[in-house]
Amino acid sequence: MTDPIRDAARPFHGDSLTALLPATTRVLGLGEPTHGVEAFPELRNELFRHLVEHEGYRSVVLESDCLMALAVDAHVTAGTGVLDETMERGFSHGWGAYPANRELVAWMRAHNQERPPGERLHFYGMDGPLETAGAASPREALTFLYDHLAPHLDLPVSRADLDGLLGADEPWTNPAVMMDPSASVGRTPEARELRLVADDLRALLTAHSPHLIAATSPDDWWRADLHGRAAAGLLRHHAAMADPSPARVGTLMALRDTMMADNLDAIVRREERRGPTLVFSHNSHLQRSRSSMSWDGRRVEWWSAGAITAERLGDRYAVVAANFGTRGSDVPAPGSLEGILSGLPDARSVVDPKRLAEVLDRKPEHRIPADHTYASLDPSTLDLVDAVVFLREV
């Protein structure tokens, strides 16, 4: 390890990381290279505490179901429900079982208890109501929006007709749809009609927002808008699930990241007067470059939520890519970027990518992961991240 490369890094600390970020940052994306390694959410917790206590951050967003996350937010802000129940029903993808996520929720609740409502930390999910095996029925999201509007406006469809169009939930959530587009109900006449209904209801929510907010509250309107976004996103997703063409997988990936980006956009607008926001997700969802994956022998590419958010926010969006060196028997090659960074003296380092690019005397190799769930850092995209957090071993 040469001295110039060491000069591009500092021991990990909140101050050493924020020193590399634009002063205009309102959304800080902290990525992890793989899910299921506790070292990364633990690092997230440490960073979030620093950001709250020293940088004025007032919210955190996780790669979890945006509707389920409402239960977590109610718990941390108002003490609704007990912690065990909140962890069980407030997270998708099994994230509620992770000790670091439990620690985060407990710390946020304790932090909020002695503070007035306007200063309390908020918790959000940015993902749609999606799981690996498929997507939720649009019933919960669409009926929530309908029931919010119905006491105040004349609606273009009755509740009974809406229930009839939705039908039973089982066809929507049929796991066979993931591999068999013909099993999907996403392009039935009823599903097409539901997309029009969702669009009409969302338009009414916006058109009558001054009246609705006065009659309910800003928070009630925001939750209705969240459910409207989720309903529209789910109906688009189910329609794409029914697509038998080779473009199906790429479309599904793009639609998921679009839902994430739209949720982040709404969170930024809600939080803009309170403080910046930390977002924690996989690197592939937060990066400014295109995301990609191999599927059935083909390379599938799409624009990530981070790339879309970066276009919307400009220098108000900053992204930090986290990665690691050794994991068990998976040791990076010496010529890879991770192999080079493994020579840093500290177990956890913050690396300035611009300085690193200046002092590297050769182009690093792209690490070939031993685990397909792990995404190594692409050396060619270092100029698209504001900082790298590197853990020598996990």
Automatic annotation (TrEMBL):
One of its GO terms (biological process) is response to antibiotic. It comes from the Bacteria. InterPro entries: Emycin_Estase (IPR007815), Hydrolase/PRTase-associated (IPR052036). CDD domains: Ere-like. PANTHER family: ESTERASE, PUTATIVE (AFU_ORTHOLOGUE AFUA_1G05850)-RELATED. This is Erythromycin esterase family protein. It comes from Actinomadura harenae.
